[in-house]
Amino acid sequence: MSNTTVEQFAAELKRPVEDLLKQLKEAGVSKTAAAIP
Predict the structure, then answer these.
(1) Mean pLDDT, rounded, of the chain
(2) In a domain, 11, yes or no
(3) Could you tell me if residue 18 is inside a domain?
């Protein structure tokens, strides 16, 4: 399993971190900070 942070994942997707966090929250994923793997 990979330890990619939300911040790294957002960079790979070329999307703002806040947008990705919002989308993850809407999908039921409980990540609240960009640095949490």
Answers:
(1) 85
(2) yes
(3) yes
Contacts of 21 (CB under 8 A, 6+ apart): 6, 31, 32, 34
Structure tokens at 26: 């809407």
- Across the range 15-27, mean pLDDT stands at 92
What gap in Å lies between CA 19 and CA 10, rounded to an integer?
A: 9
Number of domains the chain is built from: 1
CA distance 29 to 31: 6
Output the pLDDT for position 2. 72
Domain annotation covers residue 35: no
In this predicted structure, what is the pLDDT of residue 4? 85
